[in-house]
Amino acid sequence: MSQLQKFTLIGVMLGSSMLAFGLLALTGKSSSATSKSDQYCWGQMAPRAEDSDIDPILSEACFEDEQEAQQFGAADAVYTHSTIYRDANFGGGWYKFWTDQGCGGLWEHGDFNLIGWNDSAGSAVAECGRTVDLCEHTYFGGASLRITGFQATLGVLNDQSSSWKEPY
Hints:
- The protein is of the alpha+beta class.
- It has one domain: Crystallins (Gamma-B Crystallin, domain 1, Sandwich), CATH 2.60.20.
- The protein is 20% helix and 31% strand.
- The chain has helices at 3-27, 66-74, and strands at 40-45, 57-63, 79-87, 91-99, 108-109, 123-126, 131-135, 144-148, 150-151, 163-165.
- It has a six-stranded mixed beta sheet, with helices on one face. The protein has a four-stranded antiparallel beta sheet with strand order 5-10-7-8, with no helix packed on it.
- The longest helix is centred in the first third of the chain and has 25 residues, at 3-27.
- The chain starts with a helix and ends with a strand.
């Protein structure tokens, strides 16, 4: 193989590696697999409406760095209605369900699969003066745990919750 062919081959290999790296950067994926429940996420909720085809999460932003996630939340006037944490005692990653419409109204999230958090919560907080029922199955089925304020452990629902709603 001539020197020119070797340089061409090296250039093609480097170009392919750079292209692959660029595509990963554009898609936001990294080579190390990070579970969504290990990240810090903000999910903007849609108000509960009868017979609605609206996705309950209007927008979502997730971060691997908690400080960066906190700065994102502080940038807007947000009202956090509930937060689920990966681990007991409010540790690990978290998912904050928020709205910009104040603390009133009725809110829920019927399927944690949609946000990558099914059977992943270890503790929870009901915020904004709310009470929420954390439920074992999607769309509010199975056992439930009523939360008002801080719930450091979830008992039988530890890593077993799939939805939450405000009691009617």
